[in-house]
Each structure stands twice: as C-alpha cells, then as structure tokens.
Design the sequence.
C-alpha cells in the first residue's frame, strides 16, 4: 500500500488511469438501515470511486426536496450518528481502499461531542468530512480538530466565493475541494458544462488539491462532462431518486431496490469512464 | 460567576456572545453575510441613514409608542405598578415594523431588488410585506402551512400588500421550517435577494442588527418612565420566541444592575408533556439556522418540533444573545402554558380594554403570577409586543366559541 491517505491514493490511481472519479452520495439509513447497508456495500463494485455518506439531520437547510425527504425517511427508521458510524465500520470490513466521506450538518456531531466523534470516526475508517454549515470562519469547531485527528476536512467553494475569499477557503482545505457548481440547494438546477470548466480552471489557479464538482449532476452524460474537466463528479440527489422510485406505497423498500441503485451507479460509472479517452487525448 | 463590566459589549468580531452566535452557514451564503456586515456597519455610522430610519419610525410606524399605566390590572394584582409598552399600537400592530423598516432601508442601500422573509404568526410577514409595499420591493414570505391555517387574517393582509406567500409543508410546517425554506431560497438567489430575518436569530450579523433596530423600545421606555415616575423601572418582562421584542426592551437596561429582567417562554401544553417551546429553560446548546444557541433537540442532535398556542413563540430555537444572558445569569427565563396565556389574554382584555397578541399574553400571564408579590412602588414594564386581533379565531376556538 502506498503512503498517504485513502483519498490521496484514490486520486493518484485515477490520475494514472487518466480519468476523473465518480463520487456517489447516499443518505445513511435511507430508506432503512438494512437496505442502505446493501446499497453501500455494493457501491464500489458498481463503479463508485468515492462514497459520500449523508448524516441525516432534521433541518437540512442547504438541501433540496429529494435529500430532505431521504433524511426524514432515515430518521423515521431510527437513524442516528452512531448508526451511521456503524455502517462505515461494516463497510470498512469488506473494503479497505474506497474513501468514505461523511457529509451533513454540524449539530449532530456537536451533540455527539467533537472529540468522541473524531475518535470513533477515525477508528471505523472515515476519511473525510463535508460539513455544510461550517465555513472557514468556524474552523475551530471541527476543521482543526479533524485535521489533528487525521481526517480530511473538505471545504466547499461556490460560484459566490470570490478570489480573495477563495484563498482563505483553500488555506484550510485538505483531501479535495468540493465545488458547488450552482448557486442553490442540492438536486435542483444544473450548471452548464462550459461554466463548470471555467470554474474549475479558476480553482486550479489557487490549489493543487483535486477538485470534485457537485450539485445538479443527474445523468451519465452530465457526470461524463464534469469528469472531463474536474477530478471527480458527485452524484447525490439523482441516486437518492432511484431509492424513491423503488419504494412501495407504504414507503418500504421493494425487492431489488439496491440492485436498481447499483445499476444506476453502473451507468454513471460508464459515463465517467467513457470520458477518459477524451481526457487523455487532450 | 465572573462579573462583567458590561453586558452590552457583544457580539465579538466573529459574531459570538460567549460560546453562542457565530456564522454556521453554507459557503454560498458566507460572502453575502460578510458584505451585509460591512454594509450594516457603514449604514449605522452614516447620519443620513440613521436619520432616515428615525424619520420612518416616527412618521410611518407612529413612534414613539406610549407607555401606558395599567391601572385596573395593577389594582387587581395588588402589587407592582404595571406599565405596558405599547408596541401593539405601532403600524401593523406589533414591534416587528421597527426591524423591518431598518432592514428594508439597508436592503435598498445595498441595491437588492427582492426581499424574502420567514414568518410564524404572520406579524413579521405582514410587517415585511408592508415595508416592501412602501419601498416598492418585490417580496416573498415563507410561512408554515400549519401557521397559514391558524393565522388566516395575516395571510390575507400579506397578499393584499402585494407579497407572495409561499406555504411550507416540510417538517412541522411552522416557523423553523419556514426559516429553512427561506434559507434555501436565499442560497439560490443570494446575488439579488435580501433576506429580512424577523428575530434576533440567524447568523451574525442578524442577531445584533435586529437587536439594534429594536432597541428603540427600551430607549423609549427609559425616557418615558423617567418622565412619568422620575426614575428607571425596577422590573422588565417580555415574551421570548426568537426574542426580538425582549432584546429590544432589555438591551438598554442590561447594565443597570438594579433592574430585574425576565423573559417568558411558551410552555405549550406544559413542560411535563414535552409539547412546549421553552427553549432556554428546557433545551441545551446546539447549532441551527446559522447560530449556536439553546435548542430543543433529542439525544442525537435532531431538532424537536416546538409547540405553542402562539405561532410567534412556536420555535425550537432562540436568539443567541438570550442564551448568553441566561448563562451569564443576567436575565431570568421562565415559562407560561397555553392555558395560562389564554387566561391572561381574557383578563387583560377585560381589565384594560387592550387585546394582547397571544405572544404578549404569555408575558401578561407571568406578570399576573408575580406582580402581587412585588411591593407597590415596584415599577414593572411589560412589553405589549403586539395586538391580538390576529388571534381571535384561535382564542374563540379554544374557548369553544365561533366568530
């Protein structure tokens, strides 16, 4: 095993392959714990290069209706931060290399206790954190302690983040930079491919960290377009949507839900891999 | 406990009041919050801006609002001399207009072409829709579907004033969800849109800014009480949801050590039932809507739905400065149930000919509880934060009557 973090190793491997990566987002415990585990464990084989696992929160203020509803489903089925960490622990037993990034809001971590959370997250094999409501201004809360604990704290950059501020944001960043490609909430608008390219260029002038692009990427073609210019494409709401489509009238998972999710991830992965040739042909 | 030189020094540069406050928001919003802070600081040091604010408060909102001696209530309770600070007599019927005029002027100054707001009882929505009509700014108000149901007259008012009222059905469909939805709108429209927050809540600089625009309440009380009684009041009482009328009344008196200050939260069906909105007395510190403050939440840090008969108090959070004042021991916080507030609503109406908002009725209820135990020279000021016309349906329903 080469040195560095799992996140670094995965981006290095992608670079060698000459392609961008696929980051898939699911909400921990959605629609229920067992179905979610089945989806999660099958994601690497389906083609996910990185996994973002959403930590459900009652008030996800930066999320659109799809991810709001997925959090609600998970919470109704007893999801907690402790259970989310259990999912990671189970995943790590079968996969030692696929990076897992926990994504969510600060309050459940704050209530769990920052030190206790970081110790447990490190022990079960969490690689990174994306906390939507912790901008660099609040770095003492979790960013600095996480770095101390050896967990990457991934900052978001948005279209509204100007040049001066970008320097500040990137100063504390580790792992990779998550570019929020639209001014808005998750799963709604999509950015035009050329806008993404311009934005990624702007970020590259400021950082050597890999750049993942998310918000509004819904189809294999859109994922491919992003993977041509960025280091990874993040697909969240569209994948969660496949969960929704495979619920019965009572909201319970229908048989084959996980397989449907994996098939969609497979399509996305094909798209991202198709983009390889064009990328290496540049 | 550490004794502070001043309780009026907050927030610090990072928007904190002790451990409370801060800017817990998505990166998309951060640049705008920084811009807002700059614009606000500039505006407040521009005499033309503050003069215009004062002019609007006087000529449009109808300030100063009177300080009314509640003679019959005082006689009935047989203790403190009870005064009402009459925010119910402001244009639009509540203290909310003070803050809305200030922020609308700021929005104009910043060149924002659209205003959004959240509302619980509808008072802040009406006040926002009103100033947007006055200044000709398109306005969208987010309001929980449950609140739309129980505050129909205010919904109609907002529509007549030209605002778009967007029902919010997510979560508990009340104030906290309306605020989530307003934040989602803002994240998507931040370059053109001004978010006019109605309470001393949200990320820095909102809690400080809203407090400053509401401080006129306490400043007037200080002057009026001096004119009437020749001295400062002894006791201040105000209801606390997010806590803006309370901060407005309390803030000018925080460093007057002899002034006892009490905030009244909603105990809903009763603290013991778990269905209440008594954030400061029953919650613990957490992070919601951009700030750390006391919060009603479960063991996993999920926010619990609040309950109160009063839509304006039905919020699981509270302004961060209140959290700090609680921990600093400067302000006492107590709670009053739905039933106690309803009793107070009726008593106040019968004795004083003043129909209080259900929010303000919570403060009245606590005054009923405590005034008899105070000496007859104790000068007590209750913030009558709003008028109760909007609540007649709710009250009639609870009393088994129909309108």
Sequence:
């Amino acid at each position: 095993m080469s040195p560095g973090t799992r996140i670094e190793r995965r981006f290095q491997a992608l670079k060698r392959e000459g392609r961008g990566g696929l980051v898939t987002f699911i909400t921990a415990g959605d629609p229920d714990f067992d179905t979610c585990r089945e989806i999660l464990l099958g994601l690497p084989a389906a083609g996910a290069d990185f996994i973002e696992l959403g930590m459900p929160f009652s008030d996800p203020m930066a999320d659109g209706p799809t991810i709001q509803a997925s959090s609600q489903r998970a919470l109704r089925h007893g999801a907690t931060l402790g259970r989310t960490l259990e999912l990671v622990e189970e995943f790590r037993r079968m996969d030692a290399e696929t990076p897992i990034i926990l994504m969510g809001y600060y309050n459940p971590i704050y209530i769990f206790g920052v030190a206790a959370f970081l110790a447990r997250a490190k022990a079960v094999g969490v690689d990174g954190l994306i906390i939507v409501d912790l901008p660099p201004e609040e770095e003492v809360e979790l960013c600095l302690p996480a770095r101390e604990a050896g967990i990457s704290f991934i900052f978001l950059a948005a279209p509204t983040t100007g040049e001066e501020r970008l320097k500040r944001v990137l100063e504390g960043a580790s792992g990779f930079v998550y570019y929020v490609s639209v001014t808005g909430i998750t799963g709604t608008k999509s950015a035009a491919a050329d806008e993404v390219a311009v934005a990624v260029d702007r970020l590259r002038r400021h950082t050597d960290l890999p750049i993942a692009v998310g918000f509004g990427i819904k189809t294999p073609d859109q994922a491919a377009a992003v993977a041509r210019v960025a280091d990874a494409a993040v697909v969240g709401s569209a994948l969660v949507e496949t969960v929704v489509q495979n619920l019965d009238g009572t909201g319970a998972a229908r048989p084959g839900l996980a397989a449907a999710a994996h098939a969609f991830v497979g399509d996305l992965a094909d798209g991202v891999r198709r983009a390889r040739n064009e990328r290496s042909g540049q | 406990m550490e004794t502070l030189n001043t309780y009026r020094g907050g927030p610090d540069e990072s928007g904190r009041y002790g451990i409370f406050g801060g800017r817990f928001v998505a990166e998309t919003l951060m640049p705008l919050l920084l811009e807002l802070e700059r614009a606000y600081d500039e505006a407040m040091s521009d005499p033309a801006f503050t003069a215009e604010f004062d002019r609007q408060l006087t000529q449009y909102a109808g300030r100063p609002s009177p300080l009314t001696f509640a003679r019959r209530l005082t006689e009935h309770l047989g203790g403190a001399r009870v005064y009402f600070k009459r925010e119910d007599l402001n244009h639009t019927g509540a203290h909310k207009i003070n803050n809305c005029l200030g922020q609308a002027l700021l929005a104009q100054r910043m060149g924002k072409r659209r205003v959004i707001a959240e509302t619980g009882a509808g008072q802040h929505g009406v006040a926002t829709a009103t100033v947007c009509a006055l200044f000709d700014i398109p306005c969208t108000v987010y309001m929980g579907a449950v609140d739309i149901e129980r505050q129909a007259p205010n919904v109609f008012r907002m529509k007549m004033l030209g605002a778009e009222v967007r029902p919010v059905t997510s979560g508990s469909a009340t104030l906290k969800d309306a605020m989530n939805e307003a934040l989602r709108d803002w994240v998507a429209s931040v370059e053109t849109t001004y978010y006019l927050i109605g309470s001393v809540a949200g990320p820095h600089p909102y809690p400080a800014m809203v407090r400053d625009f509401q401080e006129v309440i306490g400043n007037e009380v200080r002057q009026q009480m001096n004119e009437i009684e020749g001295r400062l009041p002894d006791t201040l009482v105000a209801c606390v949801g997010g806590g803006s009328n309370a901060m407005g009344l309390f803030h000018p008196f925080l460093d007057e050590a002899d002034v006892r200050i009490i905030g009244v939260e909603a105990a809903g069906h009763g603290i013991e039932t778990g269905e209440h909105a008594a954030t400061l007395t029953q919650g613990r510190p957490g992070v919601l809507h951009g700030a750390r403050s006391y919060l009603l939440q479960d063991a996993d840090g999920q926010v619990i739905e609040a309950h109160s008969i009063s839509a304006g108090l039905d919020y699981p959070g509270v302004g961060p400065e209140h959290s700090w004042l609680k921990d600093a021991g400067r302000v006492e916080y107590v709670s009053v149930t739905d039933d106690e507030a309803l009793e107070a609503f009726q008593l106040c109406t019968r004795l004083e000919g003043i129909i209080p908002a259900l929010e303000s009725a919570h403060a009245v209820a606590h005054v009923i509880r405590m005034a008899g135990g105070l000496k007859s020279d104790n000068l007590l000021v209750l913030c009558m934060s709003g008028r109760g016309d909007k609540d007649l349906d709710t009250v009639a329903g609870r009393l088994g009557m129909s309108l």
Q: What stands out?
A: Chain A has a mean pLDDT of 93. The longest strand of chain A covers residues 21-27. Chain A touches chain B through 47 residues (CB under 8 Å). Chain A is about 50% helix and 15% strand.
